[in-house]
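$ ./design --mode recover --in tokens.txt
reading tokens...
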């Protein structure tokens, strides 16, 4: 019977490489079998979908899939150069000319308002609003010209305002859907009951991902409160975790962590795989009546109790209304 022989550095290196290769192969297989599947081949002709952050990563793949299904896709992006390139690529591949690029900087309340006004002037109805744009900053916290913490402004306050400004367009749809791309990293955050942490502009340095995790926590609270407020309308609101995906979201990982991280990224899912749950929530007929849920791998998934606290969700909503400077003439939800 043969046995391991640790007799030379070469054999040790060979064993280590084999062990890593076996581990990575098993991990890749696990990712494959847990990947969500979209069974619906629904044609989306006649439907108008807004995808924020559609110039790269998960958003671009979401736009690509919906374009192939015939939807009118509004790519809401801050970088018009990469957005135009992405649009041209999607049009060429899908043969769908009904793909439009519009400018929005989700971290700026004025830009969100300008974008919403443009939509109100050019569109008759919005069927699906996909809040996909997101940032994960490194250690430094920034403050926007609106006095909001930058990561929270982009990931949470911008979408909160945009949802209000477009809600009446969504209500015009036969079945409006609002989809929020959150993250399972919400688990490492909390919104304190006194809301002392919902606009942390004083702390200049933060632990990596602290603000990101908080923004994802707030997104889930927002989705659930929104779903409750939309009861009795034809509009639903759901959120999701897309998986761990190899995209630009990891670009701000600080040195030297980024050196270790690069090879690990090889194991992550592709942006197309990351778009599946978003596309599923956009097209699947079986989710038509589902609202206020968190999805992962195209399935409803349980979330922890802390994020589901109804009282804190209500308080967060009211405080957010003030922070995004909602006006009397703006739609109420
Ligand atoms: N990748 C993952 O493993 C993972 C896991 C969980 C959740 N998510 C979530 O998935 C969503 C998509 O991210 P991704 O992974 O596809 O990363 P990505 O490739 O970096 O895409 C993020 C998109 O958001 C856009 N964006 C960022 N700030 C913006 C702003 N102020 N205004 C307008 N657009 C802005 C980016 O535009 P620019 O090109 O101009 O930067 C980009 O198009 C994010 O909400 C992220 O939090 C990702």
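writing sequence...
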């Amino acid at each position: 019977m043969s046995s391991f022989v640790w007799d030379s550095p070469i054999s040790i290196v060979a064993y280590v490489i084999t062990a890593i290769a076996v581990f990575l192969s098993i991990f890749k297989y696990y990712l494959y079998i847990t990947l969500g599947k979209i069974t619906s081949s629904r044609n989306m002709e006649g439907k108008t979908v807004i995808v924020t952050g559609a110039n790269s990563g998960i958003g671009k793949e979401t736009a690509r899939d919906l374009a192939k299904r015939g939807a009118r896709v509004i790519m809401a992006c801050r970088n018009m150069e990469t957005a135009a390139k992405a649009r041209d690529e999607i049009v060429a591949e899908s043969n769908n000319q009904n793909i439009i690029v519009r400018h929005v900087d989700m971290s700026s309340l004025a830009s969100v308002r300008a974008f919403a006004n443009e939509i109100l002037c050019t569109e008759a109805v919005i069927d699906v609003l996909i809040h996909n744009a997101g940032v994960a900053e490194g250690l430094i916290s920034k403050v926007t010209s609106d006095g909001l913490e930058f990561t929270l402004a982009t990931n949470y306050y911008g979408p909160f305002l945009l949802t209000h400004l477009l809600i009446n367009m969504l209500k015009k749809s036969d079945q409006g859907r609002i989809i929020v791309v959150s993250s399972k990293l919400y688990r490492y955050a909390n919104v304190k009951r006194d809301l002392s942490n919902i606009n942390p502009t004083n702390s200049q340095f933060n632990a990596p991902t602290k603000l990101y995790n908080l923004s994802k926590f707030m997104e889930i609270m927002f989705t659930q409160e929104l779903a409750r407020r939309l009861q009795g309308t034809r509009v639903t609101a759901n959120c999701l975790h897309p998986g761990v995906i190899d995209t630009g979201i990891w670009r701000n990982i600080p040195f030297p962590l980024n050196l270790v991280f690069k090879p690990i990224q090889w194991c992550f899912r592709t942006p197309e795989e990351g778009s599946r749950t978003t596309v599923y929530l956009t097209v699947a007929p079986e989710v038509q009546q589902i609202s206020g849920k968190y999805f992962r791998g195209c399935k409803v998934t349980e979330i922890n109790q802390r994020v589901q606290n109804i009282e804190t969700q209500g308080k967060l909503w009211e405080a957010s209304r003030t922070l995004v400077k909602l006006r009397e003439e703006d739609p109420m939800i």
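exit 0
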